[in-house]
Model the fold of this input.
Amino acid sequence: MTSIRPRRLRRTPVIRAMVREHHVRLESLVQPLFIVENEADAGAISSMPGISRFTVEGAVAECCVLHALGIRSVLLFGIPENKDALASSNYDPNGVIQQAIRAIKAALPDLYVIADLCNCEYTDHGHCGIVDEHGDVDNDKSVALLVRAAITYAHAGVDMIAPSDMMDGRVEAIRSALDAHGFSNTPIMAYSAKYASAFYGPFREAADSTPQFGDRRTYQMDAPNAREALREMALDIEEGADVIMVKPGLPYLDVVRAARENFDVPIAVYNVSGEYSMLKAAVANGWLDGDRAIDETLVSFVRAGADIIITYFAKEYAQRHGA
Done:
């Protein structure tokens, strides 16, 4: 009987690379950027080592660096100077995100600019929409605000809109509004399975979006549920989503795999702030080899079936693996 030895194909770096099944492509990576309206709010984020908040001008400079490294896509989050109960700065045509979109596209026309669409950074209470008299987020009134903001993003020149609020019916409303205003070519990447997760803590510092009361469990998904995630994805696809997303990433790789097996649209995964900060803390303490841990983390998303990886590691990965 012929001896079967799988180790033959592991003996050298060359053969391991030759038979490698999955690869992380720079073209698949999206770097999130936090953009502030008030210059005093710019600077390093203490809970996310290596990540900063930028002014519009600083964001343009950072995008130039990312582009030179081979990163072709960014995801923008805005932190306005003024907040109110109606998130009015979100749909201001001259708001911080609208300014950033115009400035980045002017400097780098071929950089793909995705705008996160939510109200939590823009409301004074930190929830993702209009709060009713019972302290709950009013779904339909909140969707109306999202639609208003989406149109201003499109007019500013955004390449893709990414609603992250988890309101029911928002994809259909945004798609209809974009089409009606002449933006039928602007795609939607829906945060379709966004879980009410403990892994968002550092992001809430970065985006200044911590709820002032309660939590987001009435609209974000319950962590133990997977079948519900598939239903949410199917609804978003039916409503017109071009890309669907699973967020967070590492604790929900099974959901990414289920999405890949059930749908034929592109699938994104968000390697969120808590996942980033945990790994960074372990590396800082000498408990992990940072380069290997980052590479292993990112390829796990590809192996699970993701086409697009939104990650704070994009720049660092490109610095080591770019051209």
Summary: Strands lie at 29-36, 43-44, 52-54, 73-79, 112-117, 160-163, 189-194, 243-247, 267-271, 308-311. The longest helix spans residues 139-156.
